[in-house]
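Need C-alpha cells for this chain, all 89 residues.
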Amino acid sequence: MSHHFKAGDRVSLAFGFHDQGANGTYAITRLLPTRMNGEPQYRVKGSDDRERVIGEGQIVLPGKTSSFGRRKSDHNPITDALNRIHSKT
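Here are the C-alpha cells for all 89 residues:
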C-alpha cells in the first residue's frame, strides 16, 4: 500500500488513538517503510516538539473524523471499534 500523505502535511490523530494526551496537530516529517501488514507509517512532530511514529490508520486530516480514501487499520481492533461507534453518531 502506498503512502497517502507526504512530508510537510499537517495531520491530527484519529478518534480512538490510545494516547489521548497526544491530541493536536502534527507535521509529517518523514515517510517510513510500511509495516508487515502493508500499512504505511510516518514520523510526525507535534507542537510540543515530541516526535512519534504513527501508522496511517491512526491519522486524519485536521478537522476530519475518518480516513479519506484509506482502508481502516487492521492492526488495532480497539481503535477500529471506537471508530465504528463514532461514525454512527
